[in-house]
Write a structure and sequence with these properties.
Blueprint lengths: L2 E5 L3 H13 L3 E6 L2 H11 L3 E5 L7 H11 L4 E6 L4 H9 L4 E4 L3 H13 L4 E2 L1 H13 L10 H11 L4 H8 L3 H15 L4 H10 L6
Parallel strand pairs: 1-2, 1-3, 3-4, 4-5, 5-6
Length: 209
């Protein structure tokens, strides 16, 4: 039996997916409402497949997949998203995501995607596949992200409107450390105001517009 972790900040979405998967004989081992919770559950439960919403608060699906890959290497990640843009797809593939599924196709294709990914294959929604092929043909790739994983987490929280004190509390660091991360981010990105940081976060898929 395939064991699944579901992570989406909408409880109704999780309930619908749970019903769908259990009807197909799969076990939903855990549910999470944000990226941090998803990472902690994956570390404790070691599910076969983690189904992650891309646009989760506190930690987006792409960075959650990165963390899950470190803490539970046997867990394969599938991203659910409304965004077929190749910048998101390529960033997800770089993060080790094995499946990228558009939410409009989830009801029809999720079970197949989980089985395929669990067997070691990669699953991309048809519209997403086209975007990846086009990007490879045109060699239109995102430049390497200069930020560390921790800096990306800080950037997402800043882009979500969190204060430095709130960032520090959520990430378990001192306010001074959070301020240092913010300074490093701005220097690395060569930006000088929060609005530019937010635009970068959107472009990298850390937050959605």
């Amino acid at each position: 039996m395939i064991r699944i972790l579901l992570a989406d900040d909408h409880q109704l979405v999780r309930q619908g997916l749970r019903t769908l998967l259990e009807r197909e004989g799969m076990e939903v081992a855990g549910e999470a409402g944000d990226g941090h919770e998803a990472v902690h559950l994956a570390r404790d439960l070691h599910p076969d497949v983690a189904v992650l919403d891309l646009a989760m608060p506190l930690l987006n699906g792409i960075d959650a997949a990165r963390e899950i890959g470190k803490l539970s290497p046997s867990t394969r990640a599938i991203l659910l998203t409304m965004y077929p843009e190749r910048s998101y797809v390529l960033e997800a593939i770089r993060a080790g995501v094995r499946g990228y599924l558009l939410k409009t196709k989830a009801a029809a294709d999720l079970v197949q995607a989980i089985r395929q990914v669990n067997n070691g294959s990669v699953y991309l929604s048809p519209g997403v596949s086209d975007a990846v092929v086009e990007a490879c043909l045109r060699k239109t790739d995102l430049p390497d992200d200069p930020l560390t994983g921790r800096e990306r987490q800080v950037l997402q929280l800043v882009a979500e409107g969190k204060s430095t004190k709130e960032v520090a509390g959520l990430l378990g660091m001192s306010v001074k450390t959070a301020e240092c991360h913010r300074t490093h981010i701005m220097r690395k990105l060569d930006v000088h105001e929060t609005a530019s940081m937010v635009r970068y976060a959107i472009r990298r898929g850390l937050v959605q517009p």
